Amino acid sequence: MKKIALSSALLAISGLASAQSSVTLFGIIDAALQRGSGSVADRTQLGSGANSSSRLGFRGVEDLGGGMSASFWLEAAVLVDTGAGGPTSTNNQPSGTPATLGGTQGLTFARRSTVSLTSSLGELRLGRDYSAHYYRYIYDPFGNNGVGASQTFLGAPTTGINRVSNQIAYHLPSNLGGIYGLVEYHLGENASNAGATKNDGNGGGVRLGWNGGPFDVSLTQARTSYASTATLGDITSTTIGARYDFSVFSVMGQYVRDKVDTAAAFTGRGGNIAGVWRVGAGEVKAMWSQYGTTAAAQPETKKLSLGYVHNLSKRTAIYGSYARVRNSGGATVALNGSITGANQSSSGVDLGIRHAF
Amino acid sequence: MKKIALSSALLAISGLASAQSSVTLFGIIDAALQRGSGSVADRTQLGSGANSSSRLGFRGVEDLGGGMSASFWLEAAVLVDTGAGGPTSTNNQPSGTPATLGGTQGLTFARRSTVSLTSSLGELRLGRDYSAHYYRYIYDPFGNNGVGASQTFLGAPTTGINRVSNQIAYHLPSNLGGIYGLVEYHLGENASNAGATKNDGNGGGVRLGWNGGPFDVSLTQARTSYASTATLGDITSTTIGARYDFSVFSVMGQYVRDKVDTAAAFTGRGGNIAGVWRVGAGEVKAMWSQYGTTAAAQPETKKLSLGYVHNLSKRTAIYGSYARVRNSGGATVALNGSITGANQSSSGVDLGIRHAF
Amino acid sequence: MKKIALSSALLAISGLASAQSSVTLFGIIDAALQRGSGSVADRTQLGSGANSSSRLGFRGVEDLGGGMSASFWLEAAVLVDTGAGGPTSTNNQPSGTPATLGGTQGLTFARRSTVSLTSSLGELRLGRDYSAHYYRYIYDPFGNNGVGASQTFLGAPTTGINRVSNQIAYHLPSNLGGIYGLVEYHLGENASNAGATKNDGNGGGVRLGWNGGPFDVSLTQARTSYASTATLGDITSTTIGARYDFSVFSVMGQYVRDKVDTAAAFTGRGGNIAGVWRVGAGEVKAMWSQYGTTAAAQPETKKLSLGYVHNLSKRTAIYGSYARVRNSGGATVALNGSITGANQSSSGVDLGIRHAF
After folding, report:
1. Quick check: is B13 in a domain?
2. Which residue of chain A has the CA closest to C87?
3. Which of A83, B26, B53, B75 could form a disulfide with B111 if both were Cys (CB 3.0 to 4.6 A apart)?
4. Is the Cβ–Cβ distance between A343 and A329 less than 8 Å?
5. Residue A181 clears pLDDT 90, i.e. is over it
6. Which chain B residues have a beta carbon less than 8 Å from that of A105?
7. What CATH number is attached to the domain comprising A177?
8. Considering the domain boundaries, does residue A17 fall inside one?
9. How far is CA A237 from each of CA A67, A88, B67, rounded to the nearest angstrom?
10. Into how many domains does chain C fold?
11. Which residues of C touch A71 (CB under 8 A)?
12. Per-residue pLDDT averaged across C262-268, rounded?
């Protein structure tokens, strides 16, 4: 993600200069022709963000002196196929996002909206950002985008809480010899007289990792509370992942476990293993992923993903991806908007352009 | 439309420089006091974009070398009278824009949201942009804005599809000796098992023109499919238009034909003829336009538009417009929010400021 | 509110230079941990803008020569805790903002969306901006933000019209020896056949003040029309306020009177008195405010607000505020999302970070 920095020269013009201060306008515009095939119906569509999520953002850093800095980050999803934005949630609960707005959904800074104070002791960050539930997508060479995205959940126990509002987070500083991590807490903001649901949307997590040269490994634990109903309940996610970068080849993988305390409680387990080969200006990607749960009938989905990205510059690439899923135990996961029957397969192809600024 | 270019100097600062790369923030803010009179009710309002549609946008070009470039364009409608944005459609069908949001409508990049690859062979453009149906507005000196906008449709067979989502377009290169044009295809993105409506919102068009010195002429053919109902059906539009620029005077006109295959199929025909006189820093505009259909009772509306624009600079103007419509065959077209009875007249006046950046 | 000016150097690059022309990207990101306590329920939340409203904006000025300039201002509310925007109104009436959108509310330029022509005779400003009703918040050291905001209304007779759409305003020039002021008119834009409600949302006001060195005083009169119902009716607001700046200490206060012609007409009266002490890089604030009405049972709320702001730079501060309200006559005002019973107290605390760019 490259960017245009409105940096110190400009800040000097307006009299706000300090050596490290800057405000940056940045974004990614990524569109792909997508085809999905399933046993019930196929679909052809123009999709947004099949290589990297389309977005528009504003961020800045102010040097406060003494090793301290203040910063902000506003990042909106942009659906390049339609021009629409994406919704956020006010309270990390279903009540906070009333209904899908389709073509009337305006831009929100739902991808990230934060203000931070940073020192050599770390960063205090307030606002909306990734929850710890999100980090199941870090060791996916498809970056959780497009037809090739790793199959590391089933249904959507965590999809609404990969990003959370009302978050207070502490991030470790970057000077710990490769150790990185964070602790986050997010608030559902319910009144104290809300009874059984008063903790709904409250949650938090811990992430700890080590990046030592070519090797990277991390462990994340996350939990968000919901009063138990047919579709909601406490969600506890554990993710462990690792990556090793050889010179032109890297391998990565992770294991994910979700405990979901709906009325009929179940456990989900899955993960992926992937490799990336750099070939000239290109990159070949292959991944196997799967996820299954202990819910009645034990639904499970297995996925093979193949991709090629050809870089035209540091900022621009064309790409193609292919993926195929196999469902069992009643699962009906289908790709690229296609519809597939229980225990049937689905496949899909993406062909796209990704441009960053 | 002038603009602020965050151009190569800045890109150099952030280390992304290449000679032709740039990111531009641009926009138009245009507000007018508008008065409309009709036989049923009059209205006084502050309107947005009566000379040129109010907007805010971000666009950029990256030189990829070898005559190739990548570019993006994000352009949002802004209603300056209220601060609201404008909606888009997810699928070029009524289902893609659920309901009018009024004052809660946030910004979307519904005017344009595209990513492109361009070479000497032309431009491949993906995203949301004008459909070929739009080009009926090119030879209107009022630019399809304000009380004076040409009356080249009746009711709204094409208003929802002047801009389309999920478009794949090819634009001819600019080095063809004045010949210009495009081919576009847009997708409704329906599942293949959607039955009679599976092609709804699919469409496309071809546009071809020639600009030779003072003379410009173009022909556009567009079609979008909808299963036939009382209000929807295949729409096929044909437009031919031309302009001739004398030194201080220009004339222009066009002819439009729409075939609309609703349950009671009908054909609409119309067009406009207009002249523009440049007088010092000012511009006097006059236009006659009309549109009628073969639907029961043969509704038809005829319109006279007069306008004056006084340029205070290249970026800023004040303007005034007057228009009057005459309805027949049961038509009830009224101007500037007034309400008029069947076969009654309506008139309106705009007085405004337009500022571009 | 500091800003990044994309100023003359840039405009020169794009060939649009004139000495004073500039376009500015600006904003404030302010987040606070907030706790509210009431007799019915407490609440803990992450709030946005508890010191200064979070926002993102674009504004610019073009020098037209001869002492004239054109300018625009687009300013959106940003809820940093969620990334959502804030709604506007199309017509200054309840019908113009259909329903609360929660997490799906996109960005609108509801804080301000204007285009202006300015000369030595003053400024003509068209669009959405503060109404004259707003100026009850000028002499509040908490700036009408956060738990400490002055209690100068009860219920919400004026909250929907502190900012109005469809406004035509004239602002006095800045060269009148400290005299400042404005006249504004805003339109409800109803059709002339709307009967009793045809003037709903129409209104206007006058503001006149004098700023002489350390002393500032102003008087504002505002009125907006609504057909009389149980909850709506003509609202007439009068505000008089003053401030005196000693070197490290300033005092300020105002008196507010609202006449509300609902079916059961009533009058509201209130005001505040406040002091600010500047202590090194910090600022201590204390305020007493109260507001009561003549409606049945004569509801009244009294409030004590205390705050401390510690400036880390001109652009960044950390802050803490405490406030407590006492209700009588059936009033139920509660702080920071808490819920309190009739005639019960409520208190709240804010701890936050404010960063401007």
Report:
1. no
2. A106
3. B75
4. yes
5. yes
6. 106, 108
7. 2.40.160.10
8. no
9. 35, 21, 50
10. 1
11. 355
12. 93
